[in-house]
Specification:
Layout lengths: L1 H17 L5 H11 L4 H13 L2 H28 L28 H16 L1 H20 L5 H21 L25 E6 L12 H8 L4 E5 L7 H15 L2 E6 L1 H14 L3 E5 L5 H6 L4 H10 L2 E10 L7 E3 L2 E5 L1 H15 L1 H15 L3 E5 L2 E12 L3 E3 L2 E4 L8 E7 L4 H10 L9 E6 L1 E5 L6 E4 L2 E4 L4 E13 L6
Parallel strand pairs: 1-2, 1-3, 3-4
Antiparallel strand pairs: 5-6, 5-17, 7-9, 7-15, 8-9, 8-14, 9-12, 10-11, 12-13, 14-17, 15-16
């Protein structure tokens, strides 16, 4: 059987070598050289990461990780296990042949493995991007036969290994679709085809890292052409709070939904107005970090638009804080913090894209603990010296003192994390962080609760919530409001 397959493989190779392939002579030898050592795919990944958004960066990272696993498998197991001589070049026209012939085992094809692994990995994040890469990956794989360095069987085996590598990476690091936030509890919201009945308040100043100010109305109309857009925060434009109130009143009179385009601070303001008026909220991520939108499962305007048009929505929790029972409460969708947590997050996010989330968390903790001073605060009546007090709306996953994201926005709890001061606290915390076990140190305390009382703060102490900073009144009570806000998001297919 093995001899039969080998003979078939060689006959097929000879037929490909003897056939004329119009246009291939100029393209395929260059393409196969560009894919040496994965350079072609690393270039594609770098370009996607540079000009694309968060989804493109995630797809590029998954593609590169799949390629790395495939390459390691081919070079450590495949080629060492099966020693197969390269094809004889007698039947291959000289003009097709490579200047430098490979000398390793012919089985399996590393180029084919890398090409299929990268394209499949990208497809797991976005099937359309994967389909766009498929012809290029197939051409790279075929070029190995065309130039005479591999038999067809080598290429097929390499392709199978590449696909397997992408599946293996997905097993260790599930895709966004596999870890999508729970779509329960579902909530009632009107379907608004084309955005008809939706009034979107767009913050002109959100997410302007580069200084380029996009046309917010055009961005919205690109996905929801019938939506009404109110731009705020710019020259001759109303302030955010006034624009939101007027939009909410209009929606209540005529029916529909309130929309918001901006970052977490803008979305916080819109959520407060939506809850007060009992309106569903459509979130279009237009800020720098977009934590709430990403945890919700909305990463692009198109995803938000599809949810609005189909009327798919869920109920999510809010957290509120107030200084006294008679005082007006303020909400937070993501996080509330006192102490050095905002600075820790800033440092971590600055470095996470370069060195990874875990090393960035360690670096941020070191920098903050090196420069910060403990602060005395009463937590549920107990006086403590703390460096960080973090409260999340719903439970966060990730590094113990630098949480990353949530997978459930309606779990009914406050995620409370406290980094205590005290003797050798810095050293003990950093040792635990470097060992990958920050939760095992007594310096860090975590709890899940519905209510938290904070006191003993000097007047004017800074506190941060959803990217905004304000002064503490001295005494605070934090509480949960379960399923208080209805937001549009796409629901999983049943």
């Amino acid at each position: 059987m093995r001899t039969l397959l080998t003979n078939l493989d060689r006959r097929l190779f000879d037929r490909i070598a003897a056939r004329e392939w119009p246009g291939a002579q100029r393209v395929l030898p260059r393409l196969t050289r560009s894919a040496n050592h994965g350079l072609l795919w690393f270039g594609v990944a770098a370009g996607a990461a540079a000009i694309g958004g968060r989804p493109a960066r995630r797809a590029a990272l998954r593609g590169v990780a799949s390629l790395a696993v495939a390459s390691a498998t081919v070079n450590t197991l495949g080629k060492r296990s099966v020693q197969r001589e390269r094809p004889l070049l007698d039947a291959v026209p000289v003009i097709r042949q490579l200047n430098r012939q490979p000398f390793t085992s012919s089985f399996p094809s590393g180029h084919a493995a890398s090409a299929v692994a990268f394209a499949t990995g990208v497809a797991f994040e976005n099937k359309w991007w994967g389909l766009a890469l498929a012809p290029v990956a197939a051409s790279v794989a075929f070029s190995r036969i065309y130039t005479g360095v591999h038999y067809p069987g080598d290429v097929l085996a390499g392709a199978a290994l590449g696909a397997g590598a992408a599946f293996a990476v997905r097993g260790f690091a599930p895709t966004r679709a596999q870890l999508a936030p729970p779509a329960r509890p579902r909530a009632d919201a009107p379907a608004l085809p084309g955005g008809h009945g939706l009034v979107v308040v767009a913050n002109h100043g959100s997410g302007q890292r580069s200084g380029v100010r996009p046309d917010r109305a055009q961005e919205v109309h690109g996905v929801l052409p019938q939506a009404q857009v109110v731009v705020c925060g710019g020259p001759d434009a109303p302030p955010l709070d006034k624009a939101l109130e007027e939009a909410a009143e209009q929606v209540k009179q005529h029916g529909g939904a309130l929309g918001v385009l901006g970052g977490d601070g803008t979305i916080n303001a819109a959520a407060t107005v939506a809850v007060r008026h009992g309106l569903p909220l459509a979130v279009l991520p237009g800020g720098t970090h977009n934590h709430f939108a990403y945890d919700l499962g909305i990463e692009t305007y198109a995803e938000a638009a599809r949810a609005v048009e189909s009327g798919e929505a869920v109920a999510v929790d809010l957290a509120r804080f107030r200084s006294a029972p008679h005082r007006e409460a303020r909400y937070f969708l993501n996080t509330f913090s006192i102490g050095s947590y905002p600075e820790l997050v800033r440092i971590r996010e600055h470095w996470a894209g370069r060195i990874g989330a875990w090393p960035a968390g360690v670096l941020a903790a070191w920098e903050v603990l090196r420069t910060a001073e403990p602060q005395t605060v009463e937590i549920n009546g107990k006086r403590r010296a703390v460096w960080l007090l973090f409260v999340g709306n719903c439970q966060y996953r990730g590094f113990g003192f630098a949480p990353v994201r949530r997978h459930d926005l309606a779990d009914g709890v406050l995620d409370v994390r406290v980094v205590h001061g005290g003797r050798l606290a810095r050293t003990r915390l950093l040792v635990a962080a470097l060992m990958g076990a920050p939760r095992n140190t007594p310096v860090l305390r975590e709890a899940r609760m519905r209510t938290l009382r904070i006191g003993g703060l000097p007047e004017g102490t800074d506190l941060a919530f959803d990217g905004e900073v304000t002064s503490s009144p001295g005494e605070l009570t934090l509480e949960k409001e379960n399923e208080a806000l209805t937001v549009y998001r796409l629901l999983p297919e049943s």
